[in-house]
């Protein structure tokens, strides 16, 4: 399994968020993202992770509220709706 660290920021307060990206070379390409709750301001926000979203996780700065897979029809909209985020076009 390969891994890398990705940094993101809360769009509302700028709280830094660290995400551990994990993927298996030659494995399933479950592209998708996370809905997170900022540890600084408490607001939910979205971060697109990319490949192998199901094996990736949040290290610090936010709490994971939900994951979605881009290849599962309606999954992203369902996760966004569950956490009060507007559905992206």
Question: Any overview of this molecule?
Answer:
Helix content is 9%, strand content 47%. The chain has 89 residues and is mostly beta strands. It has one domain (2-82). A hairpin with a 5-residue loop joins strand 3 (32-38) and strand 4 (44-50). The longest helix is centred in the C-terminal third of the chain and has 8 residues, at 75-82.
Topology, element by element:
Elements: E1 2-9, E2 16-23, E3 32-38, E4 44-50, E5 57-60, E6 62-69, H1 75-82
Antiparallel strand pairs: 1-2, 2-5, 3-4, 3-6
Descriptive terms for the model:
89 residues; mainly beta; three-stranded antiparallel β-sheet; flat
In total, how many beta strands? 6
Largest sheet: 3 strands, antiparallel
- Gross morphology: flat
Mean pLDDT: 89
Query: What is the H/E string?
Result: EEEEEEH
Strand numbers in spatial order across the main sheet:
1-2-5
Spatial gap, N to C terminus: 33 Å
Number of domains: 1
Strand content: over 45%
Put simply, the count of helices is 1
Uncertain parts = none
| Helix content class | under 10%
Radius of gyration: 13 Å
Report the structural category.
mainly beta
């Amino acid at each position: 399994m390969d891994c890398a660290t990705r940094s993101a920021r809360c769009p509302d307060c700028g709280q830094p968020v660290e995400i551990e990206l994990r993927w298996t070379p030659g494995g399933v390409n479950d592209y998708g993202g996370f809905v997170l709750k900022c540890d600084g301001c408490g607001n939910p926000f979205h971060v697109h992770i990319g490949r192998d979203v199901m094996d990736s996780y949040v290290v610090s700065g936010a709490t994971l509220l939900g994951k979605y897979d881009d290849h599962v029809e309606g999954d992203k909209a369902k996760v966004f709706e569950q956490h009060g985020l507007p559905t992206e076009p």
